[in-house]
Amino acid sequence: MNKYTERLYNGVIKENPTFVLLLGMCPTLATTTSASNGVGMGLSTAVVLILSNFLISLLRKIIPDGVRMPAFIVIVASFVTMVQFLLQGYVPALYDSLGIYIPLIVVNCIILGRAESYASKNPVLLSVFDGIGMGLGFTIALTAIGAVREILGAGTLFGFRILPDSYTPIAIFIMAPGAFFVLAVLTAVMNQVKINTAKKSGRSVQILDCSEMGCASCSNSACGGRVFSIGESEKNNYTEMEGKA
Questions:
Q1: How far apart are CA 119 and CA 50, in angstroms?
Q2: According to a count of CB atoms within 10 Å of the terminal CB, is the N or C end of the chain lower?
Q3: Domain range for residue 221?
Q4: Same-domain pairing of 208 and 159
Q5: Can you spell out the DSSP letters for 32-98?
Q6: Same domain? 128 vs 238
Q7: On the CB side of 17, how many CA atoms lie within 13 Å of its CA?
Q8: Does pTM surpass 0.70?
Q9: In this structure, are 228 and 155 located in the same domain?
Q10: What total number of domains does the chain contain?
Q11: Are residues 28 and 132 in the same domain?
């Protein structure tokens, strides 16, 4: 796997921003009442993520450290404004459906996290692929959550009825509690798939709390203090490091 393919795999599977890193929960839970909303929100965020990664990486040696975060926010806000105007002009129904969550992309921790932890430290092309991978992972996650909620809560998918008319929609799935439930189930499914894959490849996987080793020693710079997965080799490295301390 070359480094560009690795960035795509990292964003979609290994460090999926929704199911693994648990970032961007506000738009994830609030906008996924349907699959269409999930696709729209995911792609809007992906476009902003790719463009901001590109420009931040391009200017990484020019932006002073003292104004790094304000500069990142200005860059992200500029691209969000462009996306907002495009949606308002060409897809007004989606724009009305997503509402305030479009401008809130500016403070989405996925975008600012990738800008700080990756784009500001790596070449342009790698940063673009990192943005594509994270954007695809976010879009796939939101679409999956939205699809499940729409099917169970309305009996439709992308607005088309797929369940018989005799089906009684479970209204809770298009409400806030349904969003939490679907997110929890899909996250558990993905974790189980990762564990099974690791077992087949001969790696043992443990879920550790970052508080056990601290962010300074953590290999997952984008997790923001959340849990992450390591294998035996990483565990041994941590044990040796702890012993030296």
A1: 10
A2: C
A3: 203-244
A4: no
A5: TTSHHHHHHHHHHHHHHHHHHHHHHHHTTTTS-GGGHHHHHHHHHHHHHHHHHHHHHHH-HHHHHHH
A6: no
A7: 33
A8: yes
A9: no
A10: 2
A11: yes
